[in-house]
């Protein structure tokens, strides 16, 4: 039972960190526009670009996962997710920022799909719906708490620190996933 609780926490946290990384742009749009000397509409376009890439790549990549071990796929995707957030944190141009957001969008959708599949596999039948709803709730929690926290961090010490925080949490989740979810 303890293993299920830890695995559940990991999956819910993955939902949260994916949501925070996706939605934080809205909270720091002015800071990004100022940093990259572009209009707010250019930064807003990154939100649209993210959504388009997410929508196109998620079903395609979901089909490609097939029978691969979920834990290995998720670990690999987390590495790409971490990389995309490092690229965002160190971006020196709007182009590099856009590339980092595209890379983030490519892996975010498939990570949600795998987290939900993971939840269905690890949860006993009576807890499946509960866990799947909580993985999705990670996104909502990110909107309610993650974005304001990221915005506050951006206001206090800079928007790059908010992305470094996402990287740090993601690295920790990668480590936890290695330790507690290898069997799937």
TrEMBL record:
GO terms for cellular component: plasma membrane. The chain crosses the membrane at residues 9-29, 35-61, 73-96, 102-123, 130-153, 159-178. It is found in: Cell membrane. Keywords: Cell membrane, Membrane, Transmembrane, Transmembrane helix, Transport. It comes from the Bacteria. Residues 7-184 form the Major facilitator superfamily (MFS) profile domain. Its main location: membrane. It is a multi-pass membrane protein. One of its GO terms (molecular function) is transmembrane transporter activity. Signal peptide: none annotated. It holds the Pfam family MFS_1. The keyword rRNA-binding does not apply. This is Purine efflux pump PbuE domain protein. It comes from Lentilactobacillus parafarraginis F0439.
């Amino acid at each position: 039972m303890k293993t299920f609780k830890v695995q559940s926490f990991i999956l819910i946290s993955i939902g949260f960190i994916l949501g925070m990384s996706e939605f934080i742009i809205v909270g720091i749009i002015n800071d990004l526009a100022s940093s990259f000397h572009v209009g707010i509409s250019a930064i807003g376009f990154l939100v649209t670009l993210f959504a388009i890439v997410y929508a196109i790549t998620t079903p395609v990549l979901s089909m490609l996962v097939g029978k691969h071990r979920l834990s290995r796929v998720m670990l690999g995707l987390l590495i790409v997710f971490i990389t995309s957030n490092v690229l965002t944190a160190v971006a020196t141009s709007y182009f590099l920022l856009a590339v980092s957001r595209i890379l983030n969008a490519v892996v975010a959708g498939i990570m949600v799909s795998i987290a939900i599949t993971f939840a269905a596999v690890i949860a006993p039948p009576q807890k499946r719906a509960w866990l799947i709803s909580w993985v999705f709730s990670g996104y909502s929690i990110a909107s309610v708490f993650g974005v304001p926290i990221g915005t506050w961090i951006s206001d206090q010490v800079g928007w790059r620190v908010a992305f470094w925080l996402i990287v740090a949490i993601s690295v920790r989740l990668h480590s936890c996933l290695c330790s507690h979810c290898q069997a799937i």
